[in-house]
Design brief:
It contains ten helices and nine strands. With 331 residues, it is α/β, with parallel strands linked by helices. The protein folds into two domains: 244 residues, Spore Coat Polysaccharide Biosynthesis Protein SpsA, Chain A, CATH 3.90.550.10; 70 residues.
Length: 331
């Protein structure tokens, strides 16, 4: 049976990953056994619709360190990571995706770096993104540059959600009152001492990606609105620009009128109305996004619900716990 207080917790969010699970078990199990430390593999099943949960439950019988936490519904990648942070018990915690694009073999180097350099965070940084398409590499570079400017801090470029953190970082993240955390921004923002480990990102081991362009765009938008008021300031500047353009149109119209060269037409009117209307709609959309976040925060709905934890007593399979960003003592 797994120890009650392992040295290492490996948190793996999964969603419809039954195709990759045999390869995942084959690579991860002997690798972690070879570390020579106590560990747990905490797999967070994010409401999978295929046989992922069934395969994982079966594997817990032959792999005592494997722990299955199943969410009642699909809540998203970052929410699954939050569930892992909330329930992990290790002195160190590593987050890694199930697709094996981030090599599990690098976990030993992450742990060794944390101990040798006495740091609380070790980022896995991709030294080669040739496995990604050109649009994905380009948008990723734009994302990190934008985040550095908006958030006002240095964020490791090409560092995704493959990282190691200490128990101090885990407790600090769990103590944050906010919902909808973006971990690749939250953890650098905390300011704990950090280091980097370079690795080569591989092709997906099996199956197809569940993180499509719409989800990546949503992550980028959440990153901006969760960490910066810059979009609101952008709305202010666009409003000023719209007012300036209106003023220029008025001056131009007066000059043409006084010179006697005015020609009845609709081009300038349509142009002015179109510009001002577009700016107003954009500003209203930005304001609406922030109002929506305030509304969601005021509702205090849990970010996710845990429906099953293999570590719990077998008689409590229907156990459901609402996680709302607070500790049990605070709830």
């Amino acid at each position: 049976m797994p120890t009650s207080h392992p040295v290492l917790s490996v948190v793996v969010p999964m969603y419809d990953e039954e195709d990759v699970l045999p390869i995942f078990f084959e690579r991860m199990h002997p690798l972690l056994d070879g570390l020579g430390i106590s560990y747990e593999v905490l797999v967070v099943d994010d409401g999978s619709r295929d046989g992922t949960a069934t395969l994982l439950r079966e594997a817990t019988g032959t792999w005592p360190q494997l722990r299955l936490v199943r969410l009642l519904r699909n809540s998203g990648h970052q929410a699954a990571l939050s569930a892992g942070f909330r329930r992990a018990r290790g002195d160190y915690l590593v987050t890694i995706d199930a697709d094996l694009q981030d090599p599990p073999e690098a976990i030993a180097e992450l742990l060794a770096t944390a101990r040798e350099k006495d740091v609380d965070v070790v980022y896995g940084v991709r030294s080669d993104r040739s496995s990604d398409s050109w649009p994905k590499r380009t948008t990723a570079r734009m994302y990190y540059r934008l985040m550095c400017r908006l958030v006002g801090m240095e964020i490791p470029f090409d560092a995704g959600d493959f990282r190691l953190v200490s128990r101090r970082v885990v407790d600090a993240v769990n103590g944050l009152p906010e919902d909808g955390r973006v971990f690749r921004l939250v953890i650098p923002w905390l300011g704990f001492p950090s280091a980097e480990v370079k690795y080569v990102r591989a092709e997906r081991a099996a199956g197809v990606t569940k993180y499509n362009w719409s989800k990546m765009f949503r992550l980028a938008f959440d990153s901006v609105t969760a960490f910066s008021a810059a979009p609101l300031r952008l709305a202010t500047w666009l409003g000023l620009l719209g007012g300036l353009l209106c003023g220029l149109f008025v001056v131009g119209a007066l000059v043409v009128k006084l010179s006697g060269n005015s020609v009845p037409g609709w081009t300038s009117t349509v142009l002015a109305v179109g510009i001002i209307g577009a700016i107003q709609l954009l500003c209203l959309g930005l304001l609406g996004e922030y109002v929506a976040r305030l509304f969601q925060s005021s509702q205090r709905r849990p970010q996710f619900l845990v429906g099953y934890d293999s570590l719990e007593d077998p008689g409590h399979h229907s156990y459901a716990e609402a996680i709302d960003g607070q500790s049990p003592e605070q709830r």
